[in-house]
Design a protein that fits this description.
Layout: E1 26-34, H1 41-47, H2 53-62, H3 109-120, E2 121-129, E3 136-140, E4 143-144
The protein binds zinc ion.
Zinc ion (ZN) binds near residues 11, 16, 22, 130 and 133.
Length: about 150
């Protein structure tokens, strides 16, 4: 499961729904796997406002990943700033720009880091623990099991 998923998960127990400490679930004994995927700037931009930044930071720290900046990046931080256009008289005729067509957006390092952390870093095996009730949800082969035993539902 992608780390991004943890941004949207709370404990499934009804008694935990109202407790702030049931979010986020805390990964334990997690075995991480990097599954590379294509960076999608539009997608990153869309999820940015919905990210629970400080919680994701905490999860990253719990997993021993490189720490995220204290405040979330802005939408503008996701693309590399276009270098100011040079006057045509100065442009070397021989130079071929590799920046793609006009209007093409180039993902910044920030976007790449975010993509790597949220969408390529996955929990393959381990547990997700509720901070409120302590219930452990098993993650096996990348899939978290949220079925609760009958007495906990
Ligand atoms: Zn719980």
């Amino acid at each position: 499961m992608k780390l991004l998923t943890l941004n949207f998960l709370t404990c499934a127990r009804r008694t935990c729904k109202t407790s702030p400490s049931s979010f986020p679930l805390h990964p334990r004994e997690a075995e991480l796997e990097i599954l590379e995927s294509e960076l999608n700037l539009v997608f990153l931009r869309n999820i940015l406002p919905r990210l629970m930044w400080s919680e994701l930071r905490g999860i990253g720290e719990e997993l021993g990943l490189p720490s995220l900046p204290e405040s979330p990046p802005s939408r503008e931080d996701l693309v590399t700033k276009p270098s100011p256009a040079k006057p045509s008289s100065v442009t070397e005729p021989s130079s071929v720009e590799e920046e793609g067509g006009e209007g093409e957006e180039v993902p910044s390092q920030t976007a790449k880091d975010l993509h790597r952390l949220l969408l390529e870093t996955t929990i393959k095996e381990g547990k997700l623990v509720c901070g409120n009730c302590g219930h452990e949800y098993a993650v096996k082969e990348g899939v978290a099991n949220f079925l609760l035993p009958g007495h906990l539902v």
